[in-house]
Amino acid sequence: MKILLLGKDGQVGWQLQRSLAPHGDVVACGRGECDLVNPEQIRSVVRQIRPDVIVNASAYTAVDKAESEAELAHCVNAQAPAILAAEAASLKALLVHYSTDYVYDGNKTGAYVESDQTAPQSVYGLSKLAGEEAIRASACKSIIFRTSWVFGARGGNFVKTILRLARDKDSLNVVADQVGSPTPAALIATVTGLVLAMVRQGRLLDPGESRLYHLAAARPVSWCEFAKTIVHLAGSVPGFDLRLEAAAINEIPTWGYPTPAKRPANSRLDCSRLESEFGLLMPDWQPYLERMLQLLALKQNGY
Ligand SMILES: NC(=O)c1ccc[n+]([C@@H]2O[C@H](COP(=O)([O-])OP(=O)(O)OC[C@H]3O[C@@H](n4cnc5c(N)ncnc54)[C@H](OP(=O)(O)O)[C@@H]3O)[C@@H](O)[C@H]2O)c1
After folding, report:
1. Hey, which of 13, 49, 181, 247 would disulfide with 8, CB 3.0 to 4.6 Å?
2. Shortest CA distance to 160 belongs to which of 267, 251, 59, 296?
3. Residue of 38, 150, 192 to mutate, ligand 1, most atoms within 8 A of C-beta
4. Which DSSP letter does residue 117 get?
5. pTM assigned to the model
């Protein structure tokens, strides 16, 4: 099986290089090899490689910046997936793509299921939903995973931001009325590999069939609870020299930390569909965070 991986240098893409390797010959491309703002380059890369599976982990993910770069966000998150879907359809290839909790408005009381109404509140959310819709409207076989609050040792994310702030600050205010599941990039990549293997082993999709799954770690928390856990755990890992203590992280409401993009208050994703169809159980995010902190400490000390 030939797999074309796009976005190899992102949080998820980096982990996919590892998790896809056992499932076929992986051709991994970053922005240098395939710039998603260049439709001709996208078509030419796909036509040259002629993959059985395209895994698209690249995206415009700067949520706040997207508010002032709507065209670019739309180009990368909606137009490029549409081109990939058309190319996949003509090769009869499977397209695997990632989307976000930000397609919801966050007003639901319980966890979101895949059939819930979407209502993005931000340019980023709108662009990601447009990407999903373009894929579903195409004739290609596709699997779309909606995930949330991604973190990992590679790339920029909330964990790294908190660690950076914790080095210098005595206290910190963090939003406590937005709830979601921090999801390790490594988990997303491992589940993608497993699902791909199972799909290849008989749960084949019909031509043009598009499947949508929520993929998030268990145990949703608020950003504030997540920040406290990061600082608490990092405090016991040798190598971190943090000034901030978890007890000095204060809960604030969303209105106390204004951002250009509006974010959903409720980002909880119900993963039952993914778990029951593929016999999986989404794990807690904390052991992944512990391993990430150990790795970062080693790196920091020149390992
Ligand atoms: N991060 C989150 O919290 C989060 C939450 C929910 C859903 N998701 C979704 O999960 C998926 C993976 O996200 P991630 O966290 O791994 O994202 P990421 O770390 O920001 O990586 C995105 C990758 O896309 C690449 N990219 C951006 N613009 C490009 C362009 N014009 N041409 C080619 N490549 C381009 C970036 O390249 P460079 O390295 O060159 O910049 C980067 O490697 C995305 O679909 C995202 O929307 C993410």
Report:
1. 13
2. 296
3. 150
4. P
5. 0.97
